[in-house]
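## retry 2 of 3
previous attempt timed out at serialization; input unchanged, resubmitting
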Amino acid sequence: MHDRYSKLFRYLQLGFDLLVLNAAFLLAGILRFDDLRVENQEYYNYYVQLFVFMNFAWVLVAVMLNSHIFYPALEIRKSLGKLINTIIIHGSVLALLLVSLKGYYYSRLFFTYFYIAFVPLLLFVRIVLINNLRKFLSKESNARPILLLGNSRAAQNFASEIENHPEFGLRIVAWFANEPGKNIIGTLSEAEKWLEKNTVSEVYCALAPDDNSLLKWLKLADENLIRFRFLPNLGMKNVLNTELQMLGAVPVLVSRKEPLEYRHNRLVKRAFDFVFSLLVILLISPWLFPIIAIAIKLSSKGPVFFTQKRSGFNNQVFAVIKFRTMLVNDEADQKQASKYDSRITGVGRFLRQHNLDELPQFFNVLAGHMSVVGPRPHMLNHTAQYRKLIDEFMVRHLIMPGITGLAQSRGLRGNTSEADLMNERVKADVYYLENWSFILDAKIIFETIWNMISGSSKGI
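## retry succeeded, writing output
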């Protein structure tokens, strides 16, 4: 959607990004080098070069990822997700540069100061900027005057959206149609006279493709230098998260957006998974795993770990690793644990309540079978059962399964013997698939850690 403010807002966001980056750079320099003399040219020459490179790299990465693009309907969360992707890739490019320049010396403390200041300040400024831009567009004097054609369902829905979202920056000043209807104020024959006295920037047309007046309206708009937009009547209900793609000259409506279809998003998520799981294994497993292993061995006979075949990415089967929480039994691969299941040991119940039984799955993440965040993988017999009972159940297998997920952070975990409980979990998983962002992953991880500490994860 063209907007007379779009370019200004893009440059404004990019300008504020650079302002924050340079402010963080200077702040880090002051904190790190306040004890160095100005005569030390070797340090300052290196850092002036770094200053130029970081600005150039930020502009390049931001333009490539479109993180500075602004349109009013974009959710703040998604804008921040793009911004975090830009930060990660910008940092990766910077790291590659520093590795290649073995002869130069840069202070690690300087980069610590820089990122501590840069990341939170940049996110804060972006939130404030977007909120103020929306407030600016919400004012009637700043909204673009538009003309609406037709009285179809598409026209009615469009008018309702414009009324409910003034931050879109659009204002319907006239509504024309060839048939009578609510709020309709004229016909084609009256439009020419109306346009002689009034100005609009765009026409939004919801007329049927075979309407005899369509070409006349299009010609009238061209003659008056008004941009023409079509509002297709798709005739579909409850299909909200769609995306329009062009296959040559043919428009194709994709039923759902999948951010992880894009390679750069998958690379960002995989890089985070690898680093995060490696840190957990190196920092936690050496001391916590032996404690849990001893507790399991003392509580009951059997192995420390429990492996089970689960449905993974693209419904491929893989073996998930967990700490054993049950007595060894023949029903482990068929019967799901229930709240008062006699098979669960005392130690196992504690591990489940605090999600500690899932910790070995970080090895699954390292192996590339799982992600830190994603839909929880189910037993094979559950997949066979629920794919026929629950709408969109199999959709959740379009992305990598996770140790935790949006459903689990909302308390939708444990026994899923009731179809309604599974349906709620699937809805959360599909929402995650359609709305993935790095920020959403961070939020889910934070909530999961909090639930682990508080014991409020509703585990069995």
